[in-house]
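can u do me a favor
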């Protein structure tokens, strides 16, 4: 980094945004200290509970068009970034085989409506196509035989989110970053304040998610619940979404015969355990995708809060000595590359700052 750019940088919050920023800034030559209120591993962040889908088309019909644009950027950026990580495991961090969207015959109108809305948003059938029952069997032989047609969202992908968080933490440490856990902080320009001391930096970046909530910033938490199961009775090559009149379910394959099923979306900041109703909805819908899931072992019922502003869009606020990034809602892995790239561009004062008009609006 040149002499005009901040050299000592503190990052508050070691979730996905915080870890990505710490890693990218260390690679750029900065001295970085990463603070986390909880444990660094396993992480309490929403990114740990998430499924890790990179699904711009799936989100296009229920989100702002800017989410779709940032999602396309993520599909290009993630493979490049992940290729730069030291990753000893044989299990890939990123898979890009598309997503499959299906519906049972009685709910086929939901699938048709999804396709119509997708076409309306994109204005052209790019990146997706209809697939027949026979093609579904070729793509995912272990799914229930009753799906007559579906949509293949060809370019979508998914990340092994928990492994990625661990790999990023290791990369930060081996690159010389200072990582401090179990250390709640307050932030202000150039300053991090803990329970025991106060430190000054050239720049402070606040990525605390729900930890940054205060009456002034209108941040809210949206409860999400996920079901984690393990079975050797079924194999999936890609995320599968099930369209249903009352809810939309997705299932994402993970290493070691694990699957993440989600997700409920509840306007509540309650962090208590998963309700019986949510558990029944997730597990019964899972069973209809394939009866082979009947013998799956439930490993975990996850609950976390997604930090969101009232418009469900991310935002980056800047002032001398302090930047605040928050509000990724349920799109953490989809939007993080855009947010991180913008912040790094601001710090390096480059002429092009990607997505500036989106991230600084409002």
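np, heres the sequence
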């Amino acid at each position: 980094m040149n002499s005009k750019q901040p050299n000592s940088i503190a990052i508050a919050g070691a979730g996905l945004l915080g870890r990505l920023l710490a890693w990218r800034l260390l690679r750029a030559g900065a001295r970085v200290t990463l603070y986390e209120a909880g444990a660094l591993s396993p992480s309490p962040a929403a990114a740990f509970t998430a499924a890790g889908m990179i699904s711009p088309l799936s989100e296009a019909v229920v989100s702002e068009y800017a989410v779709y644009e940032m999602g396309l950027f993520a599909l290009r950026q993630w493979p490049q970034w992940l290729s730069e990580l030291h990753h000893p495991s044989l299990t890939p961090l990123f898979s890009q085989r598309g997503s499959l969207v299906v519906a049972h015959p009685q709910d086929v109108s939901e699938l048709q409506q999804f396709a119509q809305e997708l076409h309306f948003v994109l204005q052209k059938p790019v990146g997706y196509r209809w697939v027949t029952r026979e093609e579904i069997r070729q793509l995912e032989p272990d799914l229930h035989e009753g799906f007559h047609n579906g949509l293949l969202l060809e370019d979508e992908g998914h990340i092994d989110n928990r492994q990625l968080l661990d790999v990023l933490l290791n990369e930060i440490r081996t690159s010389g970053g200072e990582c401090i856990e179990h250390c709640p902080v307050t932030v202000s320009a150039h300053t991090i304040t803990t329970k025991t001391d106060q430190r000054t930096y050239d720049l402070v970046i606040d990525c605390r998610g729900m930890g940054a909530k205060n009456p002034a910033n209108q941040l809210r938490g949206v409860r999400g619940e996920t079901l984690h199961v393990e079975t050797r009775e079924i194999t999936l090559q890609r995320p599968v979404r099930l369209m249903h009149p009352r809810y939309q379910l997705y299932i994402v394959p993970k290493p070691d015969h694990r699957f993440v099923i989600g997700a409920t979306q509840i306007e509540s900041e309650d962090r208590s355990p998963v309700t019986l109703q949510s558990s029944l909805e997730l597990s019964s819908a899972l069973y209809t995708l394939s009866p082979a899931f009947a013998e799956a072992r439930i490993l975990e019922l996850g609950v976390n809060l997604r930090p969101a502003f009232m418009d469900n869009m991310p935002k980056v606020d800047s002032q001398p000595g302090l930047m605040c990034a928050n509000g990724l809602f349920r799109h953490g892995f989809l939007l993080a590359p855009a947010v991180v790239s913008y912040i790094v561009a601001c710090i390096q004062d480059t002429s092009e700052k990607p997505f500036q008009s989106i991230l600084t609006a409002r």
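The longest strand covers residues 297-308. hope that helps!!
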